[in-house]
Write a structure and sequence with these properties.
Layout (H helix, E strand, L loop, with lengths): L8 H5 L6 E4 L3 H14 L14 H26 L7 H7 L6 H11 L3 H14 L5 E6 L19 H10 L6 E6 L4 H7 L8 E2 L2 E2 L1 E7 L2 H12 L5 E7 L16 H29 L12 E5 L5 H10 L4 E3 L15 H9 L5 E4 L8 E4 L3 H11 L28 H13 L4 H12 L4 H4 L2 H7 L28 H8 L14 H20 L5 H23 L1 H4 L4 H31 L8
Length: about 600
């Protein structure tokens, strides 16, 4: 969702048993939130200044401890409240899925007439109330070095490593750290030094390791790497490459359904292999391996929009849980969204949420158009001062002009790059196209933090950058109104329908369409029929999508089990996608013929 949008979600939803994920990398934002919540609960706020040793980790540790204390107090108050209409205790149980054990107990209590027996049941229900987990996320690619005043590198002071240390030192239990955006060996090697990730309570790890993966191969590679260090991955969180919020890491045309099928078929073998490696690593360290295999959950997220889709993923692929993210941007009770951005999110349609070039990392980025951040960015361009002051430095990765990395959305980089572009011997049309691509880049560190600055009236992250950036997944376009937490939960469990009335394709169809649009854009910009390696890649990309269409066709009666009209539309959409792929291949063929290149297409 972005840095600030879930920065305090545990305070908003954990007492209702709902788990959420806090992004902890942006320590300036974390410090602003520390100040906000200490003042809100009437406790003294003691700033952690940037001059203090290890200030990043200290800020993160204290903020997570603060969230934990607030949630603990909320749970105590909720358990002490009464089963009366409108109470949070009633809301807790009303939001549970109908088939759950606790919901059945709650319904039994409601039907009891004997006051003594009812009170006993009420007390039993109170003891069953548990908070949702406070989980945290680190995007592994955000791991720049940090420096002392004399210019020397701070040992173990890089962004991701400091954030990891901050989480490890926190009091959170029954909590997970979620690593996204691929493997970071330095980060994983440092984690091996932290005993907290091997501590267990009964059969559960106190702090669990969760890895976001795009496919089974990624799970094997990262799972083995950590197992060899005596670290156990408690969950592989599968996410659609492009049908997600924020940075989008496209697969080579592999679709979510076939990926989940592979996990389903190879899950037991994967766990067995990792457990064997894990036990050997523990033995080599002089530690006793567990008598039984720790659990590994397999979960999925990215583009889920209906209870029927959710149920199919759980039942057919046997995943342990599903993740819903972007729709919650329309739930102010769950996330932090300023009023202007909330209005834009609610009004957004397919044309408003785009796969953009706005990230300084050069990675495709799902992005909401016409935000205050986008307008501010182009206003600065019109005033002939493009680029960010880059005070946060989390996305510094370019060394084209400097010895130390700088951010490609920064004023320092754009100034040099635009001067270089002005001297290139290219057509004016090409120059303007390149200039536009450069100037779309946006300061995400501050832009994704500012919604909290505006909502809570905190001191700004940087006075020069006040606009808000939003990065919802494409699926948000099918939700069109601000709703309560209960309404969104009811939608997830199929008790109501919050989708706008316009037609919404199935999540598998949507993903295919997004990938086709992505492929067309890539081909338009980079296709070279004389480049054999590139041709092979794009042929493989199309073949993987064709295989997915065949897979979904064979499974259509299971995917759309009860709606004959819906199944018919699903099949029609698949056939249109097949034709789209053929059209793309025909375009290649024409270009190959034009260049008199006889490269085979199949």
């Amino acid at each position: 969702m972005g840095l600030a949008y879930t920065i305090d979600s545990p305070v908003k939803v954990a007492r209702f048993g709902i788990s959420s994920v806090v992004s902890i990398i942006e320590d300036t934002l974390v410090e602003r939130m520390r100040q906000h919540y200490y003042q809100k609960i009437n406790e003294p706020y003691l700033p952690i200044h940037t001059t203090e040793p290890d200030y990043r980790a200290k800020r993160i540790t204290d903020y997570l401890n603060l969230l934990n204390r607030i949630v603990d107090k909320q749970i105590d108050r909720l358990r002490e409240s009464t089963f009366e209409a409108g109470s949070e205790l009633v809301q807790y149980f009303e939001m549970l899925p109908e088939g759950s054990f606790m919901k059945k107990m709650y319904r039994q209590m409601q039907e009891m007439h004997d006051r003594h027996e009812r009170r006993k049941m009420e007390q039993k229900l109170r003891t069953e109330v548990k908070a949702g987990c406070i989980d945290v996320n680190i995007m592994t690619k955000l791991d720049n070095e940090r420096y002392h005043a004399d210019g020397s590198v701070i040992e173990n002071g890089s962004d991701a490593v400091a954030a990891l240390r901050g989480y490890a030192n926190s009091e959170l239990t029954d909590s997970s750290i979620i690593f996204s955006a691929g493997m970071n060996p330095r980060l994983y090697n440092y984690m091996e030094q932290l005993d907290v990730f091997t501590e267990m309570h009964d059969v559960e790890f106190v702090k669990k390791i969760v890895i976001k993966v795009s496919d089974h191969r990624s799970a094997i590679i990262q799972g083995k790497y950590l197992a060899k260090k005596g670290l156990w991955v408690s969950e592989f969180r599968i996410e659609s490459g492009l049908n997600c919020g924020g940075h989008a890491f496209a697969s080579d045309g592999f679709m979510l359904g076939p990926i989940l099928e592979e996990f389903k078929n190879k899950r037991e073998a994967l766990i067995e292999e990792l457990f064997d490696i894990y036990c050997k690593a523990l033995t080599a360290k002089g530690k006793m391996p567990p008598a039984t295999r720790p659990a590994i959950r397999v979960t999925v997220q990215g583009g889920i929009g209906t209870a029927e889709e959710d149920a199919f993923l759980r039942e057919y692929y046997q995943v342990d849980a599903t993740g819903w993210g972007s729709p919650f941007l329309l739930v102010p009770e769950a996330v932090v969204v300023d009023d202007e951005t909330l209005e834009l999110l609610a009004a957004s349609t397919e044309k408003d949420i785009v796969l953009s070039r706005n990230s300084p990392l050069g990675v495709p980025f799902n992005y909401l158009k016409d935000t205050s951040g986008e307008r501010e960015k182009y206003r600065m361009v019109s005033e002939n001062r493009p680029g960010s002051p880059c005070s946060e430095k989390f996305l510094q990765a370019n060394t084209e002009f400097t010895e130390k990395p700088i951010c490609t959305a920064s004023a320092a980089y754009l100034s040099k790059k635009l001067q270089q572009l002005a001297q290139e011997e290219i057509t004016e049309e090409e120059r303007q196209k390149k200039r536009h691509q450069l100037l779309t880049r946006e300061c995400l560190c501050i832009g994704l933090s500012n919604t909290a600055v505006h909502r809570y009236k905190t001191p700004p992250i940087n006075k020069a950058v006040t606009g808000v950036t939003a990065c919802p997944g494409p699926n948000l376009a099918y939700f069109d109104k601000v709703v309560s937490l209960k309404e969104m939960v009811d939608h997830i469990y199929g008790r109501t329908n919050l989708l706008r009335k316009a037609y919404r394709p199935h999540m598998f169809i949507n993903e295919l369409k997004i990938y086709i649009a992505y492929l067309k854009e890539q081909l338009e910009e980079t296709f070279n029929p004389e480049n054999m390696k590139q041709m092979k890649y794009y042929r493989s990309f199309c073949k993987n999508m064709q295989d997915a269409v065949e897979y979904y066709t064979s499974l259509a009666s299971r995917i759309i089990a009860t709606d004959e009209k819906g199944k018919e539309i699903f099949m029609q959409e698949l056939q249109l996608i097949v034709q789209e792929i053929k059209n793309i291949e025909m375009t290649w063929l024409l270009q190959v013929v034009e260049t008199k290149n006889d490269l085979p297409l199949h």
